[in-house]
């Protein structure tokens, strides 16, 4: 198993991407700590992991609150002995399909403030613990909008570009202390939003080289690899999961 005896925190663990990654971490031997706002949905994910023989624990954590994030990280480190992996899949509502000249300041700033805040809080909480250990992997989650010129994305494009900048900055500050920081840049994933209009999906598919959009299983497998020793030479990088809509 690629993550045997590793302790992994997954924020937003009840969501589609977070739960897929949490299950994959557990299947590869990690003890997973599921963090989110709603205990009932977290317990559903944890129960499924335990039924498959995995180890999972849940906690209500406000990923926008420093005290909540820090207290949870401290408790995981104390109980498990280390934090080896941190993955943030927390999502927030975003106002789109409004021209930048017409969107309100609050609607524009909302995803920037929320997404940057949660990634900053969870990544730095993990980095402090991992630096003391001398090892650990922090995985951020970005989106294709960080590199797109697609219009009417509101503040979502800037939010994801900032997450990628944070990934590079944190990797630079903590790499010599054994901490790797890597990111996943995804495209829209239909499994996360089955009600997406067919015409919208068709436009996104047309922009890809592979003629399709990414799968949840691909997010999960990539996260496992990035957290494993096999990716030990990778830090400060964004892994491209856009199916070729963005060319690096």
Low-confidence stretches: none
- Count of discrete alpha- or pi-helical segments spanning 4 or more residues: 7
- Over the alpha carbons, how many angstroms does the gyration radius reach? 17 Å
Approximately how much beta-strand content do the residues carry? 15-25%
Share in helix: 40-55%
Q: What average pLDDT do the residues reach? A: 96
Order of helices and strands: EHEHEHEHEHEHHE
- From the N-terminal CA to the C-terminal CA, the straight-line distance is 31 Å
Estimate the global geometry from the Cα principal axes.
globular
Kindly report the spatial arrangement of strands forming the biggest sheet: 3-2-1-4-5-6-7
Number of strands: 7
Major sheet summary line: 7 strands, parallel
Written description of the protein model:
There is one protein chain. This protein is of the alpha/beta class and about 250 residues long. A seven-stranded parallel sheet has the order 3-2-1-4-5-6-7, with helices on both faces. The chain is globular and about 50 Å long.
Task: Describe, in short, the structure shown.
The chain has 248 residues and is an alpha/beta fold. The protein has helices at residues 16-27, 39-51, 66-80, 105-133, 156-174, 198-206, 216-227, and strands spanning 7-11, 31-36, 55-60, 85-88, 136-143, 179-186, 238-241.
Fold blueprint:
Blueprint: E1 7-11, H1 16-27, E2 31-36, H2 39-51, E3 55-60, H3 66-80, E4 85-88, H4 105-133, E5 136-143, H5 156-174, E6 179-186, H6 198-206, H7 216-227, E7 238-241
Parallel strand pairs: 1-2, 1-4, 2-3, 4-5, 5-6, 6-7
């Amino acid at each position: 198993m690629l993550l045997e005896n590793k302790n992994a925190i997954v924020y937003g663990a009840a969501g589609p991407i977070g739960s897929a990654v949490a299950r994959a971490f557990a299947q590869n031997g990690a003890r997973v700590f599921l963090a989110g706002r709603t205990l009932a949905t977290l317990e559903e994910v944890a129960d499924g992991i335990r039924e498959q023989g995995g180890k999972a624990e849940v906690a209500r954590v406000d990923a926008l609150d420093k005290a909540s994030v820090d207290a949870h990280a401290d408790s995981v480190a104390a109980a498990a002995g280390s934090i080896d992996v941190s993955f943030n899949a927390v999502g927030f509502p975003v106002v789109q399909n409004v021209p930048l000249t017409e969107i309100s300041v609050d609607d524009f700033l909302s995803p920037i403030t929320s997404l940057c805040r949660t990634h900053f809080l969870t990544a730095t909480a993990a980095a402090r613990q991992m630096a003391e250990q001398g090892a650990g992997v922090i995985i951020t989650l970005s989106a294709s909008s960080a590199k797109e010129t697609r219009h009417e994305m509101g503040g979502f494009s800037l939010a994801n570009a900032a997450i990628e900048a944070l990934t590079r900055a944190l990797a630079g500050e903590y790499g010599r202390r054994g901490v790797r920081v890597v990111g996943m840049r995804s495209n829209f994933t239909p499994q996360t939003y089955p009600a997406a209009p067919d015409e919208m999906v068709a436009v996104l598919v047309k922009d890809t080289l592979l003629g399709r959009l990414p799968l949840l299983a691909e997010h999960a497998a990539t996260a496992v690899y990035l957290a494993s020793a096999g990716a030990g030479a990778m830090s400060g990088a964004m892994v491209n999961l856009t199916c070729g809509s963005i060319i690096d």
